[in-house]
User: Fold these one by one.
Assistant:
Number 1:
Amino acid sequence: GAVVSQHPSWVICKSGTSVKIECRSLDFQATTMFWYRQFPKQSLMLMATSNEGSKATYEQGVEKDKFLINHASLTLSTLTVTSAHPEDSSFYICSAAHLSGRAGEQYFGPGTRLTVT
Amino acid sequence: GQQVMQIPQYQHVQEGEDFTTYCNSSTTLSNIQWYKQRPGGHPVFLIQLVKSGEVKKQKRLTFQFGEAKKNSSLHITATQTTDVGTYFCAATFTGGGNKLTFGTGTQLKVEL
């Protein structure tokens, strides 16, 4: 149980285009999903916290107009990178907190590797 | 903001040697989790520690949470090549809800 999927697993796009990444909790409901970004050989940096039915909370330094997050249901959150640039190339990982799980426990998706050319 | 420092950054060991990575925070933690990330993969949850002084074991892995809940360690006994990867601690802070702050990670390489 507690499986999180992400789609696509990798994507290459041209500079200036937008890319949407989906994060789904497959066998549980998640009131909260988290979006992280990981650059090569670095740690995971939290970008935003996504709560079902409400606006996402962005971390300091993360542009909310560039990284659009939608959490329309208890099993789906999407991250749209708008007007992507090469510096946005990174590994984007989502995680989901189980509705009835232990406090703090998150389940991570397999990640989406974004390359902007 | 709140940070979690992790040392060492890299560790190369011979198979069979022990390995330890340490996490430290200047702020008291609500709980701490440990994750393993294989090259090219995503973080996989290993364990969560909540209580002051807590010690948990998973086969060759031993996890400790400091008495002051400001530090934690992961110790691997007799490393194997399958232990290769980056180990991250991740902490939640009081008032931060489920928000995780990841440590800087320790990359472990195991040589035959």
Number 2:
Amino acid sequence: QKEVEQNSGPLSVPEGAIASLNCTYSDRGSQSFFWYRQYSGKSPELIMSIYSNGDKEDGRFTAQLNKASQYVSLLIRDSQPSDSATYLCAVANDYKLSFGAGTTVTVRA
Amino acid sequence: KAGVTQTPRYLIKTRGQQVTLSCSPISGHRSVSWYQQTPGQGLQFLFEYFSETQRNKGNFPGRFSGRQFSNSRSEMNVSTLELGDSALYLCASRGDTSNYGYTFGSGTRLTVV
């Protein structure tokens, strides 16, 4: 079983819609969770971090964490063409990040 | 505030050679970690250093090594390069509080021919 798994993509959404990304992790003791955005040819950029159960909102982004289900999600509201990128879910343990394979999101104008 | 700086940005090496990559973390960050990104394997953890001590190491052969200096700058070295070592090598730094996210540098694109 992989440490971090993300829903397979690619995900195509129309401009203005909500993009929903999901991630599950295997280590029940994990405490820190991150979402990174990576544009083609660029390095990952941290867009959200979440550490406790529930929702965390930052602008058009909402991260949700459910430790009992070992599940993390990211919602992108009012999707814009500039949101087209690969989104990486990452879980921190033992001074390292374990990444999912990423979900590529394309926002159609 | 300057970000994470990696040098060089691009490298082309021949099989069998060795290479050294450099990373300067965000000022005040003492944790530096390295990752390898390839299309097939995604982002994989190489190692993490804090105050010159390696605290964790990923599942890579001994040809991959690293170190951290007293000013928190870090280097990684790959010896006896193989074609499969071609990848984007990313460095990330983090503040001391565990609730800080990891900030990545722009990466070094290594091509082994």
